Amino acid sequence: MKFINTDGMAFIGPGSEWFWTAVSGLVLAITFFAIWRQLALQRSASGYAQVTDLSRQDFAEPMLRVKVEIYRALHEGCEPSQVPFGAASYLVDFWEDIGVLVRQGHLDRRLLHESMGNGCRRWWATLQPFIERVRAEVGPRAAEHFEWLAGQMAALDRKVGDATVYDAEYVARTLENHLRNQSDRLRTAEELRGFVLRPGNEAIIHAGPAPRPTRRETPSSAQPEVPTVGP
What is the pTM of this model? Predict the structure, then answer.
């Protein structure tokens, strides 16, 4: 019993058109798959580079100063809706821009979730009272991408079984730890920079060790200089 009838089949010459058509189709399919694979790899590399750059910005000294300013204000009893406007706006804009990138498909939300998902949710919980105050003044669309992004991170948390609730109680409970953590990171960033600028002090304080003076060599025949002591 024949499963494939090969009678009359030709692979070269007249009658072999079917074979070369099939080969051409197979080559095209392999080519399309290779192109798709290359584009997928490029997209992954681009997404990784974007997340790496965003993480670097998140740990940069200006961002750390902003975070410490907000946490310190809350620690000193500031109302959550009245945190320093400039610092809060800086953070809101940072997460708003990321929300736009994810929403427009330029950044994979799952990749962002793995790297910065908890930071997004934590800062939304921290800045939500401030954002609500701003919305009362300028309209309900303020920080809409930030809010959407926080919702996406929450949905991904639920998928992986993370039941952490980020709310006002969470912010108050973890405030001291986050203040200490960000202050330590800021101090490290200042030391790595090589000098520290303190508010209200125009002097530049060198954070690294002072250079050691070099010893001046004198010939063995030379007599050491004796300082002259005046009257």
Answer: 0.67
